[in-house]
Amino acid sequence: MKASRGFNVVMIAWAGLLAYSTMASGPFAEQISESEIRSLRMGAGIPDDERDMSIDQLISLLGRDGYHWADYAVLLRCRLADDRTRTEIYDKLADLAIPVGDTDEDQQRMARTSAVTVLGLQREHRDQAIAALQRVIGQTHSLLARDGCYRSLGALGGPEAIEILKQAILAGPPKGAMPGGIQYELHWNLYMYLGSCGPDATPVLFEIARKMGMEDSDLLWAALPEAGDGTVVAFLLEKARAATSEWSRNEALRAACTKARGAPPETRQRIADMLIKGANSEDVTVRQTTAWGLGVVGNATHIALLDRMAAEDPYSSVGSGIKGGQRYEKQIYPVREAAAKSIEQIRARFAKEQTPSTP
Questions:
Q1: What are 232-269's pLDDT values in tens digits?
Q2: What distance separates the 2 farthest-apart alpha carbons in the chain?
Q3: Which one, of 154, 188, 183, lies nearest residue 169 by Cα?
Q4: Distance between CA 351 and CA 299 in Å, rounded?
Q5: Distance between CA atoms of residues 81 and 213, nearest Å
Q6: Disulfide-capable partner of 201 in 106, 176, 197, 328 (CB 3.0 to 4.6 Å)?
Q7: Cβ(252)–Cβ(240) under 8 Å?
Q8: Measured between alpha carbons, how far is residue 296 from residues 144, 170, 279, 309, 339 in Å?
Q9: How far is residue 323's CA from residue 328's CA, in Å, rounded to a whole number?
Q10: d(CA 9, CA 5)
């Protein structure tokens, strides 16, 4: 359980760091004003005495309880540095990310996680960051440290990161890895990291799938990037049409919904038409996919069906919670709740479409 603590913490903090790195991004230090620096420091909770710290002191605080601002401070230092200094910072982060000795305490793992996360947010200087991450991958046998590096490569994207992740996937799990074990689980993560490189990774994922006979794998479907040029959704719809089981069809449609944001109306309609067929399925999972998916791709013509599902779907389970210090139980209707939420989403989308845009 301890081994996953750093990973869980960084996944929670990732969105905040990504937003901050976007605000603090840019190729030249002279393009950022003192007022912008003050705003960035204040927004991240960086204390005034940070200015007097060396980069070594800052990096030594990464992953420590009570010093969450150190991640942001290092990001800002990377933003303000010249190329030579930035390369030195990346080398120091890589040094920190490489486990030393046999001890692996929580704080060490969290420090390594912070280091590779910061490197993964350096898209403005992708080549330098990738070089640092490759050094860590080449010098550590720690599965979690390598996994963090691969995750950061997925965040960086670009041709080089795509190629590194492709080769790691084709190499397969480590020799002797047992199916279902952590080595297998971390290897499957590589598909998701490759998909996070964006639409440029789509043909590579298809190439890997063909080589490894995985074109019908829901793992591949989940990893594929969002809509892009429409190739992904078309592929998933074809898989749904050709599915020989209701489960496979449902998985393909669920994946198509997640990739369809921003897709043209005709593509969304094609997905919706296939989803509707699952509204009366005996499988609650299929009905729930229909109720949820119509909220993603549906329109006003689907509200009547969703109204019926929200009022009549029979499936329920017993849930529990705590209120006023007392535990209570209640009936939960997952399909009804998904349908009601989808109605709200469709109506909100319709209202937005009817609102004239201001010039």
A1: 888 899 999 999 899 999 999 999 998 887 778 888 99
A2: 66
A3: 188
A4: 11
A5: 46
A6: 197
A7: yes
A8: 34, 34, 15, 16, 11
A9: 7
A10: 6
